[in-house]
Specification:
single chain; 142 residues; mainly alpha; Arc Repressor Mutant, subunit A
Amino acid sequence: MTAPTDEQIAKLGAALDVFVRRFKLADAAPGKPLAELDKQILLYVQKHPGSGPTDVARFLGVATTTISSATDRLARRGLLVRDRPAEDRRAVALKLTREGDASATAQAQAYLAMFKTMLERLSPEERDSLVAMMTKIASYDT
C-alpha cells in the first residue's frame, strides 16, 4: 500500500474542518452546554449503570483523574450521582439522575438525527461505502 500524498492529506484536513463546523452538534438538553467528554460519560453511564470511573476512563481512553473532574461537574449539575456500594465502600458506582437520563437520551437522539442528515445526502451505495470506510479507520489499531 502506498503512503498518502501531501495533497490527499491536505484535502482530507480541509474536508474534515468543514465537516466539523457543519455538523457540530448543538446541545440537545436545555441549560448550560455540556463538554463533549461530559456527554460521552452520560451516554456510557446510561448504557452501563453502576459502572465505576475506571470503567468509563478505560472505555473513553482518558485518565481516571479526567473522569473524576468530569463526574464532579456532572454531579454538581445534578445529572449524575456517585453511590458507594455497601459491599465495598471504596468502590464508586455511577448512576444518572432523572435529569441526567433525560439529557443522555436527548443527546443520543440528536446524534442519530445528525447521522441521518449526513447519510441522506448519499446514495445507498455511497452510504455503505462511507460506513465501511469509517469502520475500517475506527478499527485501526496502532
